[in-house]
Here is the input.
Amino acid sequence: MNKLRIIYNGLVTENPTFVLLLGMCPTLGTTGSAMTGMSMGLATMGVLICSNAAISAIKSVVPDRVRIPAYIVVIATFVTLLQMFMQAYLPSLNESLGIFIPLIVVNCILLGRAEAYASKHSIVDSLLDGVGIGLGFTVALTLLGTIRELLGGGTIFSLRVFPETYGSLVFVLAPGAFIALGFLIAFINYIRKRSC
Amino acid sequence: MKKLPSTLFNMVMSLGVITVVAAALLAWANAVTSGPVAEAERQKQIDAIKAVLPTFTNDPLASKWEFVPAGGSEPFSVFPAYDGDSFCGAAVEGYSLNGFSGRVSVMYGFDSDGNVTGYEVLQHAETPGLGAKMQEWFRMDAGHRSVLGRNPGTDAMYVAKDGGAIDGITAATISSRAFLETLRSCYSAFEAYKSDCLKNDADE
Here is the structure.
């Protein structure tokens, strides 16, 4: 039960995008369509799970004063691994996410969870925290990507809902990301307020 | 377990071990993926060549010829295609640095007379919904959009706004200019290849 609580915490109570407002750069940059948003979320989740587990495993042998560089090296290693394997086996996906894959290194969600959670909890708990936060991030990015793709081009996951001419281009561009994210956060906070 | 105290020795040791392990992991991954990465790149080029050129029987990648454009730093690649023994055109991979968001790389196909047979946008960072439409726009059979079948040697490959013969993408003139600039320089690379490497069989 307690373990499920950790995942729920990452997905809802401490959702990285809607509640903690962390990792805004990929959130705004890769949600032009539902597909790229979801892929980015999953890629980040993969790295987060690995880095959380690894950091939790080495937490007792890393002296406090060098913990940040140590964590960054761990995170950067996993990100580079991910990028290499994506280049080799999923070249088209790697292309559509472009620069945002290497930029996972500086995503504050990863270092944030390493510092706030993985460095204080057991390996299993940290792993579950990675799953929870990663799912929260993926759901948020997919949601935002779906909204922007629908309002911008009239499609969801490239399936046509209404003709492209009725779409508003601004939602595919950067300003639309801010507008959609703002309304989404307001809406989610409204629901959270009402439910408790 | 108690945390290690932050003495110099402990700090150097732990960071040292972590970086060595990380480096070993990356070296292993690099060794595992370098083959597939090169293969994926190669496959992408072959697919692009197949998409822009009509039938050919040789391996254009094997006879790759490079051409450095005036003022450019990186070479353009010319992949000549032969049907049997006769030269039937070439795919030219070129780029322009004047896109709305930097570099635009395109592969163009030319038949032996220099008519455009096709193109594939290989890499760009243009605005989605605007400049990114270039992959479809310049083959649409509407107005003067299409570059297919045109000959850059005789047609003015500029957007209509600059006095040319092509309708640029609506609201993405800069991207359209970059696209057509790439086409013009690829054509000059193609011409250079023809005059350099084919002059021996000039009687054809």
Summary: The mean pLDDT of chain A is 88. Chain A touches chain B at residues 32, 58-66, 69-70, 73-74, 76-77, 80-81, 84-85, 87-89, 91, 95, 98, 152-153, 169, 172-173 (CB under 8 Å).
